[in-house]
Amino acid sequence: MLLRTLMLLLVLGVGTARAQDDGEGAADVAGAADSVSAEQEVAEFNRELQTVEEKVSHLKERVFASKATLQLLKELVIDGATVGSKVAIWHINRLGGGYTMEAAQYFLNGKNVWSKVDPGGSLDNIPEVKVLEQSVTPGKHNLQVHLVLRGKGYRIFSYLRTYQFKVQSTYTFKVEDGKLSIIRVIADRRGGFCNFVDCPDIRFDPRVENLREE
Fold first, then answer.
1. Architecture in CATH of 86-210
2. How far, in Å, CA of 71 to CA of 144, rounded?
3. d(Cα 61, Cα 41) in Å, to the nearest integer?
4. What is the pLDDT of residues 187-200, one digit of tens each?
5. Residue 135: exposed, middle, or buried by beta-carbon count in 10 A (0-12, 13-18, 19+)?
6. Model-level pTM?
7. Chain-centre distance of CA 61, in angstroms?
8. Where do the domains of the chain lie?
9. Burial of residue 185, with CB atoms counted within 10 A of its CB: 0-12 exposed, 13-18 middle, 19 or more buried
10. CB 144 within 8 A of CB 202
11. Which own/partner contact pairs does 157-160 have at CB distance under 8 Å and 24+ positions apart?
12. Which residues pair with 107 in a beta bridge?
């Protein structure tokens, strides 16, 4: 009788252990399934996010391309690349030995089209140079010239080297369709008596020619 009782308890203990092991195994399987499902959701979200980023990047490229196209069209229309009118601007220095030209800037319709700076005086060695020739739209245009000068003195007049000053002038001109407008900008000295600083002057000598057919 005692032997049968011990065997029965042993069988019940093994069954209970197996039941516990089966329950823990099922829980582990369920947890693993939940983990795989979460990883799949994260992966799917990352794929969707990457797709959205690619679409945004593609849209940015299209926007940049459109801006570049608009800028090109603007240059063609505003700068007159499609019309038969041109302007040519010449820089001419006739100031003579009393002045050193340290800088010169030319602005056409507010846009810097030529600039040269050299305190060493290399501009004095350029008596005449074409600073611009380009197509423009017919109509009125504005030319601004800025010069930086310094006195050039010797011996008792060496103090003139300390004189640095600016000379500026503005000129408005009209360009006709089918014409080449030539503007000669002449840095010269005024006639008659004038003091050293007020003597330099900027004159504009315009001329119009017919455009040659290419």
1. Sandwich (2.60)
2. 25
3. 30
4. 999 877 888 788 89
5. middle
6. 0.58
7. 18
8. 1-78, 86-210
9. buried
10. no
11. 160/98, 160/196
12. 112, 144
Q: Token pair for residue 121?
A: 């005086």
> What are residue 40's DSSP bridge partners?
none
Question: What is the C-alpha separation between 32 and 40, in angstroms, rounded?
Answer: 12
Give me 117's structure tokens.
Answer: 């700076």
Which pair of structure tokens corresponds to residue 61?
Answer: 């490229």
Neighbouring CB atoms inside 10 A of 173's CB total: 14
Q: Is the dihedral of CA 35, 38, 43, 44 positive or negative?
A: positive
| Tens-digit pLDDT profile for residues 153-207 | 666 556 566 778 899 999 999 999 999 999 999 999 987 788 878 889 999 999 9
